[in-house]
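Annex B. Sample input.
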Amino acid sequence: MEHDGHGSGMDLPPFTLSRALELGGDPVFLIGCLAALALYGWGVLRLARRGDRWSHGRTVSFALGVVSIAAVTCTGLNDYGMVLFSAHMLQHMVISMVSPILLLLGAPVTLLLRALPTAGRGRRGPREILVRLLHSRYVSVVTSPLFTITLFVASLYGLYFTPLFDFLMGSRVGHLAMMLHFLAVGLVFFWPIMGVDPGPHRPSHLMRMLELFATMPFHAFFGIALMMASEPMVDTFADPPASLGVEAVADQSGAGGMAWAFSEIPTVVVLVALVIQWYLSEERRARRQDRTADRDGDRELEAYNAYLASLRSRA
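Annex B, continued. Sample output.
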């Protein structure tokens, strides 16, 4: 499979799943995926050597997140994504809506904080730098709902409905930058919502759900706009190679269907995860209250009963 780097494909056979999953794609992402797995594995092994446990579920989730990135960037799908709107949209939706969720459920920041050694008194090592970054004003701003929701929506409309998309698709570097941007936007958007790793913003579970739902109408409308368009809306995909046997408007409609579907499915997954987190959080709070009551003889309840008795005596 070959393409010229400007989106006009050469000698690409019709799209099939087997061809899309052939090894290939961008070596930058392959190196990045291998490095991410190696770093995460180092953290898990470091904890194991000192007798600490790390959740197998988190490890599997992170690994699946990395695999999902590799599946859309280190395979033949990356070549088809240069000439087919539907293939590109599949890359976009996976790397911005699926991969970030899986990566964040793996709690990589928590693992790194536990694995990195603590620097000596008065010294600043990698762990201290990471902690300072997590509590910095910069991270506070980029993880605020106003910023994340705006960035998430602008990444759809500001990219696809302006000449910026065609400009980025005109070079390998531009395409790589776009994919990295999609991944970064997904991570920044879902990080405060998932609430697994430490961060400056920890809104209530209800507020997290509202943040999640806030983007759904914009995402759905974007998909519907692509599905209902009667002519190509992006020049890059206006003239697919004849060897693919694909009509541009039909392919664009398929891309819109993917965008619409991915606004629903990952949202449901995250919503279920939030409900489970909320339930577990309430259980932990109830257990803490029970332990406190056992230690102090339930002074809070006794004080409340005394307050009620004082009100009755005044009546």
